[in-house]
Amino acid sequence: MWQSLFMKEWLKLRWYFAAALLVNLGVCMKILLDIRQLIQMEHGEMVWYQAIHLHTLFYDPLRYLPLITGLVLAAAQFMPEISGRRMRISLHLPMDQNRMLFLCLLAGLFHLGVLAVLDLLLTAGILLWYFPRELALASLPTLLPWINAGLIAYLGAVHLLLEPSWPRRVFYALVFTALSSLHFAGSGYGWLTPALPFFLLLSPLALLSVLDTGRRFRQGGVS
């Protein structure tokens, strides 16, 4: 049955995923062209100075892209289910409800993960083409908090869509907005690296909380 479930999620997400893939590729292409133009217009020493001493993030256009992608994929995946009340029917299928919701979330997170890996590889590859290896590798701990913010945004949006109680929705909206905004604090290479283990722990915790909201959604908001 899980194969059918994944196929159902893929059919819902495929066009939104394709659009997100094109946007991510376009942004990476813009980063490549911007660096190339900067090197052609300015002295190489100036570009080096900006990269090494000023910690200019040439890949800053990627900052909010995972977050926006997470919100879009969550809406594409769960809005049709909520508006048509099909989710409540699906939760009564002969399958453990937590397992079914977990597999749905896994499908959405997988699509986000594919885009995240693509961004990491393309960004590192572009930087390796123009800068030393150390500078390219420094992009990874810088990008990871932004990517994790996308995962938190995805799980938070699903949380809000499934939550039957409006006061709880407002509360969760504030919590997930605060958690996501923490991932964008500071600037420069690896600014949030010391806090990265804590941030990465937030995603599985958010996943568990969505499962609890799914249970209350199935029970019509009864705690």
Automatic annotation (TrEMBL):
Q: Which ranges does the record mark as transmembrane?
A: 15-33, 62-79, 100-131, 143-162, 169-185, 191-211
Keyword field? Membrane, Transmembrane, Transmembrane helix
Record's protein name: Uncharacterized protein
Which species is listed as the source? Desulfobotulus mexicanus
